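Reviewer 2 asked us to include a model.

Predict the structure of this chain.
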Amino acid sequence: QVQLVESGGGLVQAGGSLRLSCTASGRTFSSYAMGWFRQAPGKEREFVAAISWRGGSTRYADVVKGRFTISGDNAKNTVYLQMNSLKPEDTAVYFCAASPLGLAVVAGAYHYWGQGTQVTVSS
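Predicted model (structure tokens):
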């Protein structure tokens, strides 16, 4: 059974930092890209960042570039999202996902999803 389990969400003040983790199990993801998406109330799910297990290539949404960093630990099957200089508009449920189609930015390209973790940034 494929599972993606996120952790690390919480409440933080504007300007603060959080690190999200996503641990994958149930299959080999070495040929997949791992991505982070977020969804705020009343809004569509949006791409945040992605990383390929092979080569470590990364891709970021413009709104998080320079503030967020995605990284991976192959030995632990875990992907991280380091979020710095957080803003109230970063408040959302953050989802981890896996795509066989490379560093895609559309949710439809991702075949496996975690349950999400809440990030709340207070002003």
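The chain has a mean pLDDT of 95. The chain has no helices and eleven strands. We have added this to the supplementary material.
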